Amino acid sequence: MNNKSFDSKRIALGYAKRPWLHKQVIEQLLRDCGLSSDHKFNNGLDVGCGAGLSTKALRLICHRVTGTDIADAMVEVCTELYGEDKAYDFYVAKAEETLAPDNKYDIVTAAGCINWVDEKKFMANMSDVLEDGALIVIYDFGITDKMRGNTAYTDWYQNQYLAKFPKPPRKENKWTQEDLIDGFTMEKQTDYEMEYSFKLDEFVEFMLIQSNVNAKIEDGTLSPKEARSWMKESLLPIFGDEKKRLVFYGYSWYIRKFLRSDRIYKLKENAFTRWIF
Fold first, then answer.
1. 269 lies in a domain?
2. What does the pLDDT look like over 39-97, one tens digit per residue?
3. What is the CA 39 to chain-centroid distance, rounded?
4. b/e map 95-104, b = 16+ CB within 10 Å
5. At 262, is the pLDDT very low, low, confident or very high (cuts 50, 70, 90)?
6. How far apart are CA 76 and CA 72, in angstroms?
7. Ranges 3-12, 32-41, 166-175, 260-269, most confident
8. What is the domain extent for residue 79?
9. Number of domains forming the structure of the chain
10. Whole-angstrom Cα distance, residue 236 to residue 201?
11. Does 275 reside within a domain?
12. Do the domain assignments include residue 148?
């Protein structure tokens, strides 16, 4: 799907109301990296920041944060929501075109945007804007076909929802060390589940900004009103007037920029290997 689909105030405002599962991802980060709950990075960067929920989560472990997004509408909403807090800064930019800051970043998060970037250009840009030893955290999460204690939802998701709103094609390769450039190492990759409880109206509004649904709205197949009506009617027997616990999948990849001493050692090691062979 074209990234232009996300460059609208409707989508941006919808993103601002998404479940704040990003906080759980940050808690997962602290566990995966063996960091204390009160650990603070100095200067964080959130690329593909959307409406700022991922930037808000990064702020939990950073003294100051910068958020960037390719969509003007997203950055506009971020500025409206967080602009009065001097710990935040936002500007429009591609993930591969982050501007070099006065003080280089010691952590970068990229939430749900990595499928749209050029890996090599992104990593080359990160090499310029990160200090040695900095951490890149690439993560994403999404709704699954699971609802705790309710198999009817699984049937709805697989046989009704995906039939009406098929998943748009996109690049979904899992990065390996070979996708990185010299000077970086893939330290760890983890997969996990998260949960979030919704009432029917809350879940419908959430689903209306999913890429599957937005693709149909943007191409004129359905209006937001028609999509909302279909969701409510088909999900009412499943939700009723109760809150339901939905299961999300999540993954995080942790990439480290070498310390200068590590880089020098690796260069010497490579030279020694070439000399032997």
1. no
2. 999 999 999 999 999 999 999 999 999 999 999 999 999 999 998 999 999 999 999 99
3. 21
4. bbebeeeeeb
5. low
6. 6
7. 32-41
8. 3-168+176-263
9. 1
10. 10
11. no
12. yes
* Residue 110 contacts residue 84 (beta carbons within 8 Å): no
Number of neighbours of residue 6 by Cβ within 10 angstroms? 23
**Judging by beta carbons within 10 Å of its beta carbon (0-12, 13-18, 19+), is residue 246 exposed, middle or buried?**
buried
For position 158, which CATH number holds? Answer: 3.40.50.150
What confidence score (pLDDT) does residue 170 get?
74
Token pair, residue 259, equals: 């310390």
143 domain residue, yes or no:
yes
Minimal CA–CA distance to 47: which of 103, 102, 141, 123? 123
Angle 224-239/211-218 helices, nearest 10 degrees?
150
